[in-house]
Amino acid sequence: MALMITDECINCDVCEPECPNDAISMGAEIYVIDPGKCTECVGHFDEPQCIQVCPVECIPKNPEHLESPEQLMQKYHALVTAKNDA
């Protein structure tokens, strides 16, 4: 399951540089997470780094993007392969 940033985001800028998949970017008003790139840090870390650094706890799981740990690992491998091929 990919993560999402809620409208409680205060744009503190700490989550974006922590994302190993470059899935976080500034949206129209708050930061957003690209569900196609979010692996919840599977393959990189034991815990999602954005959640670890968020001071307002506004990063829950996105119910519109349900994925198992195995699917997240497959996405991680696909992203790494694409990055290495670029």
Automatic annotation (TrEMBL):
Q: What range(s) does the 4Fe-4S ferredoxin-type domain occupy? A: 1-29, 31-64
- This protein's species is Paraburkholderia acidisoli
Lineage of the native species? Bacteria, Pseudomonadati, Pseudomonadota, Betaproteobacteria, Burkholderiales
Entry's Gene3D superfamilies? 3.30.70.20
* Keyword Transmembrane helix carried by entry: no
Q: Which GO terms describe its molecular function?
A: 4 iron, 4 sulfur cluster binding; metal ion binding
The record ties this protein, via Pfam families, to:
Fer4_7
Tell me the SUPFAM superfamilies matching this sequence: 4Fe-4S ferredoxins (SSF54862)
- What's in the keyword line of the UniProt record? 4Fe-4S, Electron transport, Iron, Iron-sulfur, Metal-binding, Repeat, Transport
So which domain of life are we looking at? Bacteria
Q: Which InterPro entries match?
A: 4Fe4S_Fe-S-bd, 4Fe4S_Fe_S_CS, PSI_iron-sulfur_center, YfhL-like
* Record bears the keyword Transit peptide: no
This chain belongs to the protein called YfhL family 4Fe-4S dicluster ferredoxin
Cellular component GO terms, alphabetical: cytoplasm
